[in-house]
Amino acid sequence: MLLLDDNTPSLMTAAAQGAAAPTIPDDKFGQTLKVTDSITHTVADSLKNMNLSDIKSIVTGENTIVKDGLRELTQLTVGFIPKLLVAVLILWVGMKLAKMLKRAIIRALDRRGAEASLKSFLASLVDLLLKAMIIIMAMDVIGIKATSFIALLGAMGLAIGMALQGTLQNFAGGVIILLMKPFKVDDYIECGNYKGYIKEIRIFHTFMRPFNGRTIIIPNSELATKSLINHTKEPVIRLDVVASVAYGTDLKKAKEALWQVINNEPLILHEPKAPTIAVSNLGDSSVDLTLWLWVTVEDYWTLWMHIREDIYIAFNNAGVEIPFPQITLHHGAEKQPIQMEPRTATAHLQTSEEEKLGAGD
Fold first, then answer.
1. CB count, 10 Å around CB of 48?
2. Rounded CA separation 80/84 (Å)
3. Which pTM value belongs to this model?
4. What is the pLDDT at residue 335?
5. How far is 256 from 277, CA to CA, in rounded Å?
6. In the chain, pLDDT over 70 holds for what percent of residues?
7. How far apart are CA 226 and CA 194, in angstroms?
8. Is residue 287 a contact partner of residue 244, using CB atoms and an 8 Å limit?
9. What's the rounded Cα separation, in Å, for the pair 125 and 122?
10. Can you give the pLDDT at residue 242?
């Protein structure tokens, strides 16, 4: 907005004639007048270079900046909508193809007999890479160049690295699990407070299924860096069973009952390692007999579930007593009061007289 005062006409006239502008007093309106003077000079220079056709185009609204801007905006919009539709189509078709390719890779690995852990990890990795490529292609169609996108990621590398620190550790943990193979799918492992069967190994997490039927999702970094127990690493494992008998029990008789259970159980292996029975502990209320039994991984839990019941039945049939915690209290003989015989006066005098006679002797 132009602020006009009494000196403004002279300024306009001087500008139109190419003369120098008069001196502006340095008062509180001095800054405003300086701006006005600059604008006036610009307008005057433009008017000197304009002809009648230019003035007519301004008056009629032809070739104005606003009209050119609207035209360019319309052209951009008309050109962008088809690109956007193509990008959406690429995303939709690409995601479908990525899913189909993932399934094809899994089938190919199945035919080659690959491990289940390797299949799930590679399938997750391929799915992630394909989706990233599809997104980059769609961005390139709408005008966002891949080089610009990569440069942006490079500039934000530090921030992204800090934000994805845990995710990158999980990815590295997944690679370590696949290379070192501390466990595989269907292994029964124990790590910290987690116990269960491994159901799937992905690029960032591992899925575990405990006996309660729930699903535990564990970060790969935790499984790769912490100590764990793989109960099913070897094809044959040992099952330890404790059978307690009461003190005073004929141990030979108890062992015979236990050997009868072992010989009648087809799941217990006798080769390459034979079962063993030995006294393992003398407890407060029982003598503990431990059975070391060898069984295949597949039959471990089946034997674990019914072997104790078989031992209980065998002990009952053999008359072997199964103890329970008990405390025996021993009470001493009841104390009787001490009987004191009273000393009579006669006896006291007699004794005193005897003492005197003895002293006289």
1. 11
2. 6
3. 0.48
4. 59
5. 10
6. 61
7. 12
8. yes
9. 5
10. 94
Nearest to 94 by CA among 134, 54, 61, 136: 134
Q: Check residue 62 and give its pLDDT.
A: 52
Buried b (16+ CB within 10 A) or exposed e, 320-349: beebeeeeeeeeeeeeeeeeeeeeeeeeee
As a whole number of angstroms, the distance between CA 11 and CA 9 comes to 5
- How far apart are the C-alpha atoms of 286 and 324, rounded to whole Å? 8
Hunting for tokens 């500039």 — which residue is that? Answer: 155
Q: Cis link prior to 342 (omega < 30° from 0)?
A: no
DSSP string, 154-176: HHTHHHHHHHTHHHHHHHHHHHH
DSSP 8-state code for residue 245? E
Tokens of 3: 């602020």
**Separation in Å, CA 164 to CA 152, 160, 172:** 16, 6, 12
Q: How confident is the chain (361 residues) per 10-residue block, as mean pLDDT?
A: 44 44 47 58 62 57 57 67 82 86 80 70 79 82 69 64 71 83 89 90 90 90 89 90 92 94 93 91 91 93 92 93 76 60 49 48 48
What are the pLDDT digits (tens) for 306-356? 999 999 999 999 999 888 776 767 666 555 665 655 554 444 444 444 444
Cβ atoms within 10 Å, residue 79: 10
d(CA 208, CA 190): 10
User: Which 3 state secondary structure label does DSSP give 95?
Assistant: helix
Give the 3-state secondary structure of residue 57. Answer: helix
Question: What's the confidence (pLDDT) of residue 232?
Answer: 87
Place of tokens 């070192």: 180
What's the Rg (C-alpha) of the chain?
A: 50
What is the C-alpha separation between 93 and 188, in angstroms, rounded? 40
Torsion sign, CA atoms 225, 229, 230, 235: positive
Tokens of 184: 């595989």
Q: Alpha helices of 50-64 — where are they, by DSSP H?
A: 52-60
Q: How far is residue 109's CA from residue 118's CA, in Å, rounded to a whole number?
A: 9
